[in-house]
Amino acid sequence: MDDLNKNQLILLALLVSFVTSIATGVVTVSLMEQAPQSVTQTINRVVTQTIEKVTKEPAAVIKYISEEDLIGSAVESNAKGIVKIKLGLGGDVVGAGIVVTSDGIIISDVNPDDFAPEAKYYAVFPDGKEIPTAFAKIDKRGFSIFSAELGDNKDAYSPANLTFGDSDKLKIGQTVLVISPSGDLQKGIISGLVRDIVTEGIATSTENTGNAPSSQEIKTIKLIKVNIPLSKDNSGSPLVNLNGGVVGITIYKEGVKVAIPSNLIKESMASLADSKK
């Protein structure tokens, strides 16, 4: 054995293992042939059941959800509440808007100061129906509030599937969509990225057990900058994340592509609801 090199030792070990396996198989077959029939039947049954169990185990299914599927779902969730704002019945489209409450409140980028004081507005819903819409006010956060006279159409046009996302969770480089009220909705979908976010720090104090109150700063997003082309036609359209949540409303400013964050819109809607109590 001392004269064998490393390779010869490996080959010898493999040969011994092979011979041992053959011997084991021969002994097993011999024992099976000598064993009572009841024992061999039991062994065969166990082997068969084990094989069936292994082969019937379902394979793990990994469902891949593509970005295209996410976009389709996001559009479906929000399309019902996206409207065009027209100046007069059958008049020119002056912008877009989102129906955000069941009683017809619409947020939009349309500024009535750009038109005559006696101007009449209509909201055009996806099915083409034009509903009289009154201007309510310009919110201090930078968007306009209108109220559509839904009347008997409340059930048909209330934004049942509208969900606001948390705009403070947006990240630079995140994919977002602008869904505008195009005649062909698919042509009104533009995807892009969050290019920048403008934040404002709010100082708050927190109580620490056994210690004096300490101060911390909470960052709130005040403006969202995107790389999506915006115009007067799609200004006022919702900015939507891939989960279908509305994270902002687009605002048209010459040479600037921005959106007002959804958390500011929610603040405004809460104040409006309180004022009606």
UniProtKB/TrEMBL annotation:
<dbReference type="InterPro" id="IPR009003">
    <property type="entry name" value="Peptidase_S1_PA"/>
</dbReference>
<protein>
    <recommendedName>
        <fullName>Serine protease</fullName>
    </recommendedName>
</protein>
<dbReference type="Pfam" id="PF13365">
    <property type="entry name" value="Trypsin_2"/>
</dbReference>
